[in-house]
Write a structure and sequence with these properties.
three-stranded antiparallel sheet; 11 strands; about 40% strand
Length: about 160
């Protein structure tokens, strides 16, 4: 029995796909009542998605798309500042310019900025509504081709 657990479960785990395809237009829960409609072609990275912690990880044509929701007493400026610092403190990453104000389709205010590293470009964004903050990073080599779809997805962010 112990041998089956020690050798069988890891083998089953390796056989399961790390990514799950999504139907176009499917809304996904990030956590804390926040939902997002991922861009067409996005897949859920089940190895990095933690629904009980408010973390959603997607893969989109070579892009890493990570959204994290949590309670916060900060406004969007503070949340975006902390995210910018976290991004900027990654080895080899350079934040490019100041964040600009954006809004979801429902009117929730956010701040969005850009960053780059060798061979990769990225977007970071933060939104706050009703005591819930969402921090999003999207990066990869295909950002220029997917930026419109990413921005549309971020605009569709919904807070409970």
């Amino acid at each position: 029995m112990l041998a089956a657990l020690l050798f069988g479960l890891p083998a089953v785990n390796r056989a399961l796909p790390a990514e799950r395809s999504l139907p176009a237009g499917q809304e996904l829960a990030i956590g804390y009542g926040v939902t997002i409609t991922p861009p067409v072609g996005a897949r859920v990275d089940v190895t990095r998605t933690l629904p009980n912690r408010g973390v959603l990880a997607l893969v989109l044509h070579g892009l890493d798309f990570r959204a994290e929701a949590k309670t916060t007493s900060d406004g969007v400026d503070g949340l975006a500042g902390r995210l910018r610092t976290r991004v900027q403190n990654q080895r080899g990453v350079q934040v490019t310019g100041d964040a600009r104000e954006v809004h979801t389709d429902a009117g929730v205010r956010g701040l969005r900025g850009t960053f780059s590293s060798t061979g990769r470009d990225g977007i970071y964004a933060a939104y706050v509504a009703n005591g819930i903050g969402v921090q999003i990073t999207v990066s990869g080599t295909a950002l220029a081709e997917q930026v419109g779809a990413v921005e549309q997805s971020l605009a569709g962010l919904r807070f409970g």
